[in-house]
Specification:
This protein is α+β, with helices and mostly antiparallel strands. The chain has one domain (45-228): Muramoyl-pentapeptide Carboxypeptidase, domain 2. The chain has helices at residues 11-37, 52-62, 71-79, 107-124, 137-146, 176-191, 214-245, and strands at residues 84-85, 93-95, 104-105, 128-132, 166-170, 195-200, 205-210.
Length: 246
């Protein structure tokens, strides 16, 4: 009697299934135990879920963002003003291990980095350490080969770094107060629909995709600040006149 042995599933399918199972289990355990480990920070945790990549890709599609196929495409987008260069070092942040070809962001993501790092420096007197900006398909494919936790380079689960609207800020060397402040700021902006943020723990970073609408948020905020400044002299004059009348 001939015994029919079940065929082995393709290795790629097995690896994909294994990664999905690990991600699901990790997400469950983090959601269950981590809030109690980080006292008072439960609601502010920015934990990755199985929906994280699809959410970012839907936003990229809604904002009509192209994914960078190669370095030549980055250069073409930079020439047309669709990407802008990010300095290696400023007073408020610095790039760590980011190659020259990948030191670019979408304009609104650069505004976010400048604004966040300036606010962080004003509060803690320490610069932010930025470890990743834009990536290409080739870069992401190479990263996926050596890092099992890296996002895909194609399909609905591909990395939002390909759009140029995403950056990673390292928690390396950050004090507890600084990390808590980052959580609160990112959680607030995420809740109000200006970005999508994930706090990673295996590789200690904040992964942040900045939405195009963040530009409008900053413009409104600056307009409010200008109005407050313009109103102050009138308030002082009114106060002085009141004092003299008394």
């Amino acid at each position: 009697m001939k015994v029919v042995r079940p065929s082995n599933p393709p290795r790629s399918k097995f690896l994909w299934t294994s990664r999905a199972a690990i991600l699901t289990a990790s997400t469950f355990l983090l959601g269950l135990f981590l809030p109690s480990l980080i006292k008072g920070q439960g609601p502010l945790l920015l934990i990755a879920t199985s929906a994280s990549q699809p959410i970012q890709n839907r936003r990229a599609d809604a904002d009509n963002l192209s994914r960078m196929r190669n370095v030549s495409m980055i250069r073409r987008f930079r020439k047309n003003g669709l990407l802008i260069p990010v300095p290696v070092r400023t007073r408020y942040y610095y790039l760590h291990a980011v190659s020259r070809n990948y030191r670019y962001l979408r304009p609104w993501a650069k505004v976010f980095l400048d604004r966040l790092s300036r606010q962080h420096y004003a509060r803690f007197r320490r610069r932010l350490r930025v470890t990743s900006l834009i990536r290409t398909v080739a870069f992401q494919r190479s990263l996926a080969r050596r890092n099992g936790n890296a996002a895909a380079f194609s399909g609905p689960l591909r990395s939002s770094h390909l759009t140029g609207s995403t950056l990673d800020i390292s928690k390396h060397g950050m004090a507890g107060e600084s990390i808590s402040w980052m959580r609160k700021v990112l959680y607030s902006l995420k809740k109000n629909g200006y970005l999508y943020a994930i706090e990673e723990f295996q590789q200690p970073t904040f992964h942040i995709m900045v939405y195009h609408r963040y530009e409008n948020y900053v413009k409104r905020h600056k307009a409010i600040e200008r109005k407050k400044k313009n109103d102050r002299p009138a308030e002082r004059i009114a106060s002085d006149n009141h004092s003299s009348d008394g």
